[in-house]
Write a structure and sequence with these properties.
Pfam families: DUF2059 (PF09832)
Strand content: under 5%
Largest sheet: none
Order of helices and strands: HHHHHH
Shape: extended
Number of domains: 1
InterPro entries: DUF2059 (IPR018637)
Protein name: DUF2059 domain-containing protein
Structural class: mainly alpha
Number of helices: 6
Number of strands: 0
Keywords: Signal
């Protein structure tokens, strides 16, 4: 059902160019289906939800089973909406920005063993990248803040008010 919803959104998104984009739209639908893009996105969002829940438990102590279930239900409901909107946006972007030939090459890639492996590993890669960034961003932000302050101080010294 979700696949049909995405298809409808794709087809409705560009009525003025319906004839021109029909083949592209069909290819995008095939790419979305073959790559299991929405499923991959959902896995990533679930992993984010698990991390958020773990952080929430650390901040508030042990969540009761009832509150954990509430969190899970609300998070999944809202993230499903995000996933659907993101898939529709991505499909529209692809129709607008890729040629038929580009889309055909993408489809072949997603049908290949490497394409399937890439999509299977995507949620794990996203989570590991996010965790890695959490380890390096505090220092990066501290450096940015320090450098900006130094530059502000230099500018003030050169142009006293």
């Amino acid at each position: 059902m979700r696949f049909l919803t995405i298809l409808f959104v794709i087809l409705a998104a560009f009525p003025a160019f319906a004839d021109e984009n029909t083949e592209k739209q069909k290819l995008v639908v095939e790419i979305m289906k073959e790559s299991r893009m929405t499923e991959t996105m959902n896995k990533s969002l679930i992993a984010v939800g698990d991390q958020l829940k773990a952080n929430l438990q650390k901040m508030r102590g042990k969540l009761s089973d009832e509150k954990a279930a509430i969190f899970q239900e609300v998070f999944e409901e809202e993230m499903t909406k995000v996933s659907n909107r993101t898939a529709a946006f991505g499909a529209g972007f692809m129709v607008q920005n890729y040629t038929i030939e580009d889309l055909q090459v993408m489809l072949e890639f997603y049908k290949s063993p490497t394409g399937k492996k890439s999509m299977a590993l995507m949620p794990q890669m996203m989570m590991q990248t996010q965790k890695f960034m959490q380890t390096i961003l505090p220092d990066a932000f501290a450096n940015i803040q320090q450098k900006i302050q130094t530059r502000f101080d230099e500018a003030d010294a050169e142009n006293p008010s």
